[in-house]
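Write out structure tokens for Integral membrane sensor domain MASE1.
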Amino acid sequence: MTSLAVTVCYYAAGRLGLMGRFVVEGVVVTPIWPPTGVAVAALLLLGARVWPGIALGSFLVIASLTAPGPTTVVTVVSNTVAPLCAFLLLRRVGFRRDMARLRDGLSLVFLGGFGAMLISATAGVGLQVAKGSLDKSEFWPAWLAWWVGDTMGVLLVAPLLLVLAGPAGRFRVRRWKEAAFLGLTALVLVPMAVLSPMSMLFLVFPLLIWAALRFQLAGSMLCALFASVLATFEATSGRGAFLHLTDVEIMLKLQAFNGSAALTALLLASVITEQRATRRSVRRACQELAEVLEHLAAGEPSPGPPRTTESRAAPPGGHRDP
């Protein structure tokens, strides 16, 4: 039943991802491939036993695009093995799902994203070259687009799912007001930055910094995902900040923006979360130390000059009485 739920989530994420697809050198790629983030998050939350759900979901997504054939097996296997490798690598280095340490954010970026997604990109594009659908000279542009799409799925979707699946913290009324103000600002600022033909994408980054400083991963990843999705849809239509650009320039600009937004949101939020956890630990240690000192002070004798047996036996000067 759990694997079936993963299949449904994977397929739904795949259909959403295909709405912003590009054709690079004859290969269908997406700047953000959400199913990889869904797969990695499902494995981290539920364990390796849900891999059949990932495989079935990948098969259904491919079947919705084209008639399944012998090459479909290779693509399904690579789409399943890549998240599994990400899961095993992250577990190997002691990855924590709350990502309360900078090392957790770096592990997700370099092991779960950049490293493990080499498998699916290499297998997927290499298969196109092997069967003759893609020329060898077109391998690297298609490979880069595939790899970045899978990686962005891990960096943008997986952290958000992990945070939402974790325990909810206390949220004061004052924080709700600030969260609402941040949301309204994002709804105004992000479309203005993306839709403007003057290329004002840099306006998104102060918003990401604000969200990371005040709301850590939940706030920063939501803002980064919203900005990346909106930028992707504008890029596919060639409007706004992507007006009058060639297909290659659109892809490069979009990849650079999505990657910068994801890394800024994820790593900065991880640093802030770790610093806050350290501050809480220091404060808790100070409180415990103060309690210990109070107990010690309560058990001390009344103050006075200490006198030992030896001092009573020998007067000052060090000689005994005869």
